[in-house]
Design brief:
It contains 14 helices and two strands; from the N terminus they run ββαααααααααααααα. Helix 4 packs antiparallel against helix 5 and helix 11 crosses helix 13.
Amino acid sequence: MSIFSATGIGRISSGRWVRGTAFALLAGALAPLGGCRDMGDVTGSIGGSNSQALPTSDEDLRAYADTWGKRYDANPGDKVASINYSKALRALTRFPQAAAVMQAAAVKLPNDMEVLGAYGKALADAGQLQQAADVLSRSYTQERPNWSNMSVQGSVADQLGDHTQAQEYYRSALKIAPGEPNVLSNLGLSYALTKQLPLAEQVLRQAVENPRADARVRDNLALVLSLQGKFSEAEQVERQDRSAEAATANVAAIRQMIAQSNSWRDIQTLEAKKKGAKPASNKATPDKAPLVINHPAG
């Protein structure tokens, strides 16, 4: 699942439709992404022998969920069944149900860090951010760190507005998994949320250079490029994973969101102050394309 769709503004991984400003898109892109099975269980990767890889087709995924659901029903709270069934439910965007499944496992195994990690990620997907933050904080120790859980902690902190803490989580995760593209992607988006767009672009370009970077990471780079008015570059990035028509539609959707908010004007004013220059006009982007800034409607 991408944060974009071929027909325009897409769905973020929490299943909520993105509305409002371009920065709502950024916040959405930072969600744990447990439901994005086509990109892998990105920051929601559980790892270890208890988690199996998800199928790629819808039909196989539903069959997988049904198989693990039956095993779970036969023994509610079982660790292996709970982890795999919950992961399948998240991929199917059934987030509250996934969280309930892992809650039962956490009640049965309250000190199992693998269970707590999966539970925290399911809570984050379900939008229960404060509870997710608490559970994830108990899902690893200094002696047994977990970069994946740290990265999800960062995404939760970013969604709660604590970007400084979020970036600390990402940096800690990168010490354990240097160059991990998904962590770099979240870090880049966090910089974008604090309007450090050149730094965000730099980090995201580093992420996409990694051979393990997936389409979601490239989508995030395209988003940050668009926020800087680099629409042509954003389309080139998008075309690595989809048709030219779909790439154009995705970038056009972001552009429309920017036009419906004050985000573009705020960014340009901030950058101009840093450089000692006049703010960029609202009439055109650096790509010479017209961009009208309107106040968001409610």
